[in-house]
Amino acid sequence: MTPEQLDEVARSAALVERRAESFSTAFYERLFAEWPEARGLFPADLTAQRAKLTDEVVFLAEVASDFDGFVVRARELGARHRGYGATSHGYEAVGSALLAGLAAALGDDLTAGVADAWRGLYRIIAEAMLDGARVTPDPGRARG
After folding, report:
1. DSSP code for 72
2. Do 23 and 67 meet the contact criterion of CB atoms below 8 Å apart?
């Protein structure tokens, strides 16, 4: 990602944080529409989960310029999400849901350039999360 894209992501993340309800509601609506099986991975009441989602997305956007720290955090997320039951095929649906959430939160502020920057950021997040899920031992595997 270019420094300009990192700036776009950080600036728009501040708006996402202020419009968290719009962002997270649209995110989960799209996620469950595209990946219905994911609904069972979440509690019935999504209130706390929506707040966690927004906090994590904003945090990752703000620290993306510290690439090493950013990747470490994303790998940790991947390992955690594997433990929650997330699978690699869901990452595409999450990317689509992220853009839907951004569209709801940013409205006209979601320009083509901002959307491209977020797509780039999500590709890096997804790759690092998948890497974290792969290198973490399976918690269900018997240890000997």
Report:
1. H
2. no
Q: What is d(CA 75, CA 97) in angstroms, rounded to the nearest whole number?
A: 20
| Beta carbons within 8 Å of 107's beta carbon, 6+ residues apart | none
Q: Give the Cα-Cα-Cα angle 138, 80, 61 (nearest 5 degrees).
A: 145
In single-letter form, the type of residue at position 128 comes to A
Name the architecture of domain 3-135. Answer: Orthogonal Bundle (1.10)
This prediction has a pTM of 0.83
Q: Looking at 33-82, which runs of residues are DSSP E strands? A: none
Contact by Cβ (8 Å): 71, 12: no
Q: What is the rounded distance in angstroms from the CA atom of residue 37 to the CA atom of residue 93?
A: 11
Tell me which residue of 140, 30, 28, 122 sits closest to 84, measured CA to CA. Answer: 140
What element of type H or E holds 133?
helix 112-135
Tokens 């989602």 sit on residue = 53
Q: Kindly report, residue by residue over 39-94, the tens digit of the pLDDT.
A: 988 899 999 999 999 998 998 888 888 888 777 888 888 777 776 767 667 888 88
Dist CA 3 CA 97 (whole Å): 25
